[in-house]
Design brief:
Mean pLDDT: 95
Bound molecules: alpha-D-glucopyranose
CATH architecture of the largest domain: Alpha-Beta Barrel
CATH class of the largest domain: Alpha Beta
Radius of gyration: 23 Å
Strand content: 5-15%
Number of helices: 16
Shape: globular
Structural class: alpha/beta
Helix content: 25-40%
Largest sheet: 8 strands, parallel
């Protein structure tokens, strides 16, 4: 796939806590990931994105980093990371790691030093410390809210406040400070030297804050609240200077490395992040947030392609990750459901899991057929549903507490992967998994689906294989009109992807059927199904 593997790669996201547990402590680890590399190679992906593996109190699943140059002992050691990278490379798999630059953990040595130091000190200057409002400074400096709920400021013993756009244990770094900037240049170099092939940059639209610290006119807690123009802490123009600096560090490595942005910004602003001297690519949340309907899906595809192509980048496609409800469940809910609150509020009989899985499989074929790269989330190749009914006492996501129990949070998509139909933790490990697996997970395990014709796993494997052979070289896409309820397009290689959004079975164009998401009925494509024809 060199030299531009990332332009068309299939990237598989591993959430290390939940992928495979080699030492039996109930939490996944690097040795576990290593032992499953043959599985990923056989699945046919090109790269693995590993969510944070750094030392961390795991208050936010590792997105609270205490040391950017090491591995959490629960996950392994730096030597394990090197071996994992080497093994992956030997199998032709690239490794992308997570960079979390907006905030550190409150356990990071810098933050401990900041707490021990006084107002105005160099130590506090690495974070965003400010005096409060009101005569005694007891009011937070602004009305900003945390993404997880509650105020974005926390008061320390001497009366100052520090900013945390996420959990209070995730203090925001001060990106006005050159020491912070050069530290991250160095962190990038550290991992490039260790052999990683890329970085997924966490909340890439944050970092820079309006230094006049104005109040927000409206506050909201979802990541989507970044879609307001001239926002004081999301998507500020100053962030591009930082991105260019990182890009220079990557370019200086003279290896085929990349960085992909997690930027929840207005689709019109996204191309700015993709200019030739900035990110190589960015996640496309626009499509993820689109309901399962033909016209919006087609419009979102057109928007993403145009946005990327205009700046010489490639589109990316994803429908699931560790932050959102698994799409096999999302697509089983009415299109206007707020799936972040639905697990608590219901109505739960709105869920049609059969339709959800059907659409999830069709969506997978649709996305894998599009030009650009595709980001898959561990377990989607098994058709795993969201475990939306986890009991409150096992919830670990800080969203649960920070939202005053208004949202259960993201644990339902982080339940450990079932590898076998039975046995302790369904083959995830030998100990009790850190989140319980529901009944029904065993039947969806890797072993249960391997070699089974028509299983979701075999559909992914086939599609990834076909994608490699036929959909690699040419980034063009041409829409085909096959009927009002049918979305269809032709790729440069001649492969036609057809998706039936209608109720009635749809006719397929003439040719060999390479893969389908559902069995054809008398040669026709059933509702909510996709097929590739050559
Ligand atoms: C990103 C991560 C999410 C995390 C947040 C704070 O959105 O994907 O899991 O909670 O950033 O780091």
């Amino acid at each position: 796939m060199s030299p531009t593997w990332w332009r068309r790669g299939a990237v598989y996201q591993v959430y290390p806590r939940s992928f495979a547990d080699a030492n039996g402590d109930g939490t996944g680890d690097l040795a576990g990931i290593r032992s499953r590399l043959p599985y990923l190679e056989a699945l046919g992906v090109d790269a693995i994105w590993i969510s944070p593996w750094y030392p961390s109190p795991l208050n936010d699943g590792g997105y609270d980093v205490a040391d950017y140059r090491d591995i959490d002992p629960r996950f392994g050691t730096l030597a394990d990371a090197e071996e994992l990278i080497a093994d992956a490379h030997a199998r032709g798999l690239r490794i992308i790691i997570d960079l979390v630059p907006n905030h550190t953990s409150s356990e990071h040595r810098w933050f401990r030093a900041a707490l021990a130091a006084e107002a105005g000190s160099r130590e506090r200057g690495r974070y965003v410390f400010k005096d409060g409002k009101g005569p005694d400074g007891s009011q937070p400096p602004t009305n900003w809210t945390s993404v997880f709920g509650g105020p974005a400021w926390h008061r320390v013993d001497d009366g100052q406040w520090y900013l945390h756009l996420f959990d209070p244990t995730q203090p925001d770094l001060n990106w006005e400070n050159e020491e912070v900037r050069s530290e991250f240049d160095d962190v990038l170099r550290f991992w490039l030297d260790l052999g990683v092939d890329g970085f997924r940059v966490d909340v890439a639209h944050a970092l820079v804050k309006d230094q006049s610290f104005p109040d927000l006119e409206t506050t909201g807690r979802l990541l989507g609240n970044s879609r307001q123009s001239n926002h004081p802490h999301w998507d500020r123009d100053g962030v591009h200077e930082i991105i260019r600096r990182w890009r220079k560090v990557l370019d200086a490595s003279e290896r085929d490395v990349m960085m992909v942005a997690e930027a929840w910004v207005h689709p019109d602003r996204l191309p700015l992040y993709l200019r030739p001297d900035e990110y190589h690519q960015s996640f496309n949340f626009d499509f993820l947030e689109t309901p399962w309907e033909l016209a919006p899906a087609r419009a979102a595809i057109d928007r993403a392609i145009k946005a990327a192509v205009d700046v010489g980048s490639t589109p990316t496609w994803t429908v699931s990750n560790h932050d959102v409800m698994r799409h096999a469940t999302r697509y089983g809910l009415p299109g206007d459901t707020n799936w972040r609150t639905w697990p608590l509020t219901g109505p739960h009989d709105d869920l049609d899991p059969v339709a959800g899985l059907r659409r999830a499989r069709a969506a997978a074929l649709l996305l894998m057929a599009l030009p650009g790269s595709v980001y898959l989330y561990q377990g989607e190749e098994l058709g795993l549903p969201e475990v939306w009914d986890l009991p409150p006492d096992v919830l670990d996501d800080p969203v649960w507490e920070n939202s005053d129990h208004e949202q259960k949070g993201r644990d339902g998509c982080r339940v450990p992967i079932p590898w076998t139909p039975d046995g302790p933790s369904l083959g995830f490990g030998t100990g009790d998994p850190w989140l319980p697996q529901p009944p029904g997970f065993g039947a969806l395990s890797v072993a249960s689906q391997t070699g089974v014709d028509g299983s979701t796993l075999e559909m992914y494997r086939t599609a990834l294989g076909v994608r490699r052979s036929y959909l690699d070289d040419d980034e063009s896409l041409e829409w085909e009109e096959l009927g009002p309820d049918v979305l269809a397009f032709r790729r440069g290689s001649g492969v036609v992807c057809v998706v039936n959004f209608g109720i009635e079975p749809a006719a397929l164009p003439a040719g060999d059927v390479l893969v389908t998401s559902a069995e054809l009925s008398e040669g026709r494509l059933p509702t909510d199904a996709a097929a590739w024809v050559l």
